[in-house]
Write a structure and sequence with these properties.
Blueprint: E1 8-12, H1 16-28, E2 32-36, H2 39-48, E3 53-57, H3 65-75, E4 80-85, H4 90-98, E5 103-106, H5 111-148, H6 153-168, E6 172-177, E7 190-193, E8 202-203, H7 205-212, E9 218-221, E10 229-230, E11 240-248, E12 251-260, H8 269-326, H9 334-348, H10 353-365, H11 375-378, H12 386-392, H13 395-403, H14 413-417, H15 439-453, H16 465-474, H17 482-493
Parallel strand pairs: 1-2, 1-3, 3-4, 4-5
Antiparallel strand pairs: 6-7, 6-12, 8-10, 9-11, 11-12
Amino acid sequence: MISNEHRSILVVDDEMVIREVLEDFLSAEGYEVVTVSSGANALLELEEEHYDAILSDLMMPQMNGLELMTEINNRGYQLVKVIMTGYGTIETAVQAMKVGADDYILKPFKMEEVLSVLDRGFDRQRLLRENITLRETVNLYRIAETIAHESDSARILQEIAEASWQETQADYLYLSIFPTRAPQWDPGSVLRTGPLAGSSLTIDEQAVIDLLTREPSLLAQGADGQVFIGGPDLTAPPVSFCAVPLMVPGRMLGLLAAASFTRRTIFTEGHRKFLHILATKAAAALENTRLVEQLQGANRELLEANRQLQENFQQSILGFARAIEQNDPYTRGHSDRVAQYSRIIAAELALDASIVEDIFFAGQLHDIGKIGISSQKLNKAGKLNAPEIRMFRRHPEMGKQILEPIPFMRHLISGVYCHHERYDGQGYPQGLCGEEIPLMGRIIAVADTYDAMTSDRSYRKALPMQVAVEELRANSGTQFDPMVVQSFLAAVAKGQIHE
């Protein structure tokens, strides 16, 4: 409850006697009282000082009480407004209420009536302020929730600036992020809001920072705020100035400042607390955004480094696979052709693009296990004996062993390990049957066999394409998956596979 000693009242009446009586009585009750004789003088006084209430006569020359109340409302002054009149009618009361008066008093009046009217006005004003405080709390919670879930730094700044201006109705609102203290921001990250946002007004950031390093926030009234604001457009000191830091532990990210140059807006402790809480929430959101951006950047760098490492390793493995064929005129280029045929078959089966590329790469590596078999054995012109057959049949297992220790190549093992399985279960190394054989292995089996038949080997000449195609057709359902053979034949028909 505010005592009368801290309340000021402006009395407006063209009759000196009324002014003097009210001044003496209200001063005796503890109010600070100033009197003026006209509506024009009352407006001048309100521009210079803050008042908690105004008592105005209704009938005055040049500007009557109703006109004065209307102008007070237009200028946004917040105070208790009471009309005094000797011509009390219902119409007069209605008119007074319409122009924003809180109450009215009939002349001649008793002093107890004046006190009662003022008490009612101050009680109504207190309830209004409590409602405003509740609204501020709800708005603050809503804004805090919004910025807490916002990942766009620019949007966070816009939300802070807009919410701060809506709450304070400042003539000049200034939001600055310090590039040197928060390197993720570009120099000149400043937002200005309010009627004077386009002016040359400037905030002395260093002066504000110096104070905010000693105090949690700044609230200055009158000339005390002039040290913090300047510029060519500054013609008078601010009526009210408030500034709060955007702080995270150990570092000030920026500052939020508001200035008012008219008496209609005087920043209160409520405004200061609102801005301080808002700035604290905003700083946390901005810091979280910065940390997320740093983490994402580091993750992108790590992923790129990992991608390059994988690519280099894949090329090394592929180099080993091709090295097996380089000294053999009969198998040179075999793995690349098998890979191409496998890719065509996989695409014909309408598999996902990523799977098609995995099958292509597995086709390039399908014979990597032969790295442990001598070229003399691989190119033997005659029939292989039983030990040589056993050794040759180990190459799928050897390929599996080469790829298993490499996490990012394990998904290719089924193509390398299973390309000699047969659809009827008579293949090796596991003797899998039908769809037990992974699709990658079934596809490479057809591609591998076709290329082997249509290439020169040490023990025979290449077969004509048509003969090889008929051989695949004849063994569909026994050696090969019928669906895969059908896709191969469709690709041949389209001219995608040719001699």
